[in-house]
Amino acid sequence: MLEIRAAKKTFYRGQPDEKVALDSLDLKLSAGEFGVVIGSNGAGKSSMLNAVSGALVLDSGKILINGDDVTEMPVHKRAARVARVFQDPMKGTAASMTVAENMLLADLRSSSRRLRKGLNAARLAAYKERLSVLGLGLENRLDTRVDLLSGGQRQSLSLIMAVGGEPDVLLLDEHTAALDPRTADIVMQATVRAVDALQLTTLMVTHNMQHAVDFGDSVIMLDAGTVRLEITGEAKKKATVADLVSHFTVKTDRMILAS
Ligand SMILES: Nc1ncnc2c1ncn2[C@@H]1O[C@H](COP(=O)(O)OP(=O)(O)OP(=O)(O)O)[C@@H](O)[C@H]1O
To answer: Which of 55, 157, 211, 254 is most enclosed, with most CB atoms within 10 A?
Structure first.
C-alpha cells in the first residue's frame, strides 16, 4: 500500500523562476494496485516518483508505505522497500558482466544478510526461475554478457533485478520510452507478468496513452503538481486513448471516474 498525503514541493521558492512541482498532492494505491501516471511535461510525474523513492525531500506532506511513515527515511534506507526502473536500459545493468552476475549484484544490494557464496547451484536455479517469468528465454542465457542482449532484454533484466528483493513499491519511470514500439510492448508484457507474479504495488509513469489504456488498474493524471483525474474500475477498463488525450486540454477540478 502506498499513500501520498498533501505532498508539497516548490523549487526556487520566492525567486523569479519559482517552480511548484507538487501542490498538495494526494494519492492512495492499495496493496497490489498498478497505477499508471500520465500528464503533460512538467506536470510533476518525476517529482512524485522522486518523493516516493526519497530522492526528493518534501517541503511538507507525508509518504506512507504499508502504513509506515517513511517521509523522513533517507533514500538509501528506503531502497530496500522501493524499487525503481529508469528510462535508460543501459543504466540498470553492468554491461561487461553476465546475466547471472548482474542478478547476484542485485541480490547483494537488496539483501541485508551477508551472501558468502557466489553463484552456487541453488542461486542459479532461483535466477532461472525468476527470469522465466519474463517469457523472453533469458533463463537460458545466464552466462551471456549483458552487452550482447537487446535493449528490451536488458530492460527486462533491470526489471527482474529491481523486483528481486520483493519491494513494497515498484516505480517505473518511463521505462519503455527509449525502446522501439515492438520492444516496448515486449517489456510491458514482461512487466505485467512480473507485477502480477509478485503482486507488487506499482506506479508507472508513461507518455504512451495506449499503454495507459492497456495496462494497470487505474490511470492517474497529474497537472500542475496535483492529481487532476483518476480513472478506476470499470471506467478504466472502458477508457480509450481518445478519452485520455481529451483530458490533456481540459482543465477542471479533480474528477474521479469509477465503477
Ligand atoms: N531539480 C529541479 N530543480 C528545479 N525545478 C525542478 C526540478 N525538478 C523538477 N522541477 C520543476 O518542477 C516541475 C515538475 O517537474 P517534473 O520533472 O516532476 O515533471 P514531469 O511531469 O515529470 O515532466 P516530464 O514529462 O517532462 O518528465 C517542472 O516545472 C520542473 O521544471
So the answer is: 157
CA dihedral (166, 167, 168, 174) positive or negative: negative
How far is residue 186's CA from residue 137's CA, in Å, rounded to a whole number?
A: 12
> Domain 2-91+167-257: what homologous superfamily?
P-loop containing nucleotide triphosphate hydrolases (3.40.50.300)
Distances (CA, A) of 207 to 40, 92, 173, 175, 249: 8, 21, 10, 11, 15
Looking from the CA of residue 12, the nearest atom of ligand 1 is 4
Q: Identify the residues whose C-beta falls under 6 Å from ligand 1.
A: 11, 19, 21, 39, 41-47
Ligand 1 centroid to 22 CA: how many Å?
A: 9
pTM above 0.80, yes or no: yes
DSSP letter, residue 32: T
Q: How far is CA 182 from the centre of its chain?
A: 20
Secondary structure E strands in 16-59 = 19-29, 34-38
| Domains of the chain, residue spans | 2-91+167-257
Q: What count of Cα atoms within 13 Å lies in the side-chain half-sphere of residue 150? A: 13
How far is it, in rounded angstroms, from Cα 256 to Cα 259? Answer: 10
Q: From atom 30 of ligand 1, which residue's Cα is the shortest distance away?
A: 42
CA of 216 to the centre of ligand 1 (A): 24
According to DSSP, the β-strands at 34-38 and 218-223 are parallel
pLDDT tens profile 134-154 = 888 899 999 999 999 988 899
- Cα separation, 96 vs 114, in Å, equals 24
Q: Whose CA is nearest to atom 7 of ligand 1?
A: 11
